[in-house]
Amino acid sequence: MEEKNTDLQLDDLVRVDNLQLLYHQSYPAIFASLISAALLSAVLWPVQQKEVLISWFIILTYTAIVRLILFMLYNRVKPQGEDILSWEMPYFVTQLLSSTSWGIGAVYIMPIDSQLHQVVIYYFLMGLSGGAIFAYSANRTMTLVTIASLLLPITGWFLVQGGLLAMGLVMGAVVFYIYTIRAGKILSLTLNKSFMLAHELNNAKEAAETLALKDELSGLNNRRAFYEKGKMLVDYCQRNNEVFSVITIDIDHFKKINDKFGHAAGDATIIQVGSILLQVIPKSGLCARIGGEEFGILLKASASDAAVQLAEKLRQKIAATPIAFNGEDITISASFGVADGNLDLDTLLKRADAALYKAKETGRNRVICDECDTEEMQSRLNAKRLLSLIG
């Protein structure tokens, strides 16, 4: 009945969110890259060798196909949680291949004798760089590396060429890159803060819900959790026509322990009983502190006397485990009431409480089963109890 907790730290959760966003929002960039390459090839067709343009376009198409396959695999696998992080490096590598094919490829297809077409290529690269700010804003490093791989080769080429126009384009690229560093930082920080705040709010909500459903002293579920989770288990059993059992437990002479040794000893008693319950109760069961010194257990009945046997095991363990308190060993015991059936939770709790009251009235430190072959069951329990005393 316990929820599975994630081991991811907050920073890793933010990385997961960033990567999910990258895969979601950058998918159209694959097709935008191919369309832009086709348009640029058409513009350069009259002034550049056809073999050069075709070979460059084939390389870009290959990188686009590789990226497309990666996105298809990601959407098919649908990784969750920590598994998503293993998709970060493939994304980075394929994206770097694509942007480098554009950056170095722009120099490769650059027409030497046409400044107009050189500016056109520069215009296309600036457009792709601007799109990268949006498409990869979830990861600042990815944004900066992509833009650098797009602009650095052509910026270096213009720097080598010299001339007023070339120097103007170089300065434009430098200014744009400086702006990108600042804008990327702001976008990345905003996104990260948003993701972090969302996780912090979710963690706070889960912590509040846990506190609302947990008994702080015993470490068990509290009364509210017992009823809320218990009704779900009962509904499941009733839908599947399965029998479930309720065990109620009351620590014997708890008031005397408090009066004689103080409330700290009473708290130690509650803590120890809670610890024993957590050790013995199967994970499929539900146990809770439902009153001051009263506990409740709810579980599916795997056999007709499974709950009674479990209760007897708990009774013996509690009685055999004294509490070490201020240099003294305090021996405690508990009484148990058991009821099973396919009824509603409130009805079975009343029956188990009635059995518990009978256990109290008939000497305490015993298990009483309500309406489950009482004479035969009780004779078995009495025999076990006698053997445990003799042993």
Could you give a short description of this structure?
The chain is α+β, with helices and mostly antiparallel strands and 391 residues long. It has helices at 10-25, 27-44, 50-77, 88-108, 115-135, 140-161, 164-213, 223-239, 254-261, 263-280, 306-319, 345-361, 374-390, and strands spanning 244-251, 286-289, 294-300, 323-325, 328-330, 334-341, 367-369.
Arithmetic mean pLDDT: 85
Structural domain tally: 2
Q: Give the SSE order as H and E letters.
A: HHHHHHHHEHHEEHEEEHEH
Beginning-to-end CA distance, first to last residue: 36 Å
Strand order across the largest sheet? 2-3-1-6-7
The general outline is: elongated
Tally of strands = 7
**Parts with pLDDT < 50 across at least 5 consecutive residues:** 1-6, 373-378
The helicity comes to 55-70%
Beta content comes to 5-15%
Category from helices, strands and their pairing: alpha+beta
Number of helices: 13
Radius of gyration: 36 Å
How would you sum up the major sheet?
5 strands, mixed
List the helices and strands and how they pair.
Elements: H1 10-25, H2 27-44, H3 50-77, H4 88-108, H5 115-135, H6 140-161, H7 164-213, H8 223-239, E1 244-251, H9 254-261, H10 263-280, E2 286-289, E3 294-300, H11 306-319, E4 323-325, E5 328-330, E6 334-341, H12 345-361, E7 367-369, H13 374-390
Helix pairs in contact: 1-7, 2-3, 2-5, 3-4, 4-6, 5-6, 5-7, 6-7, 9-10, 10-11, 11-13
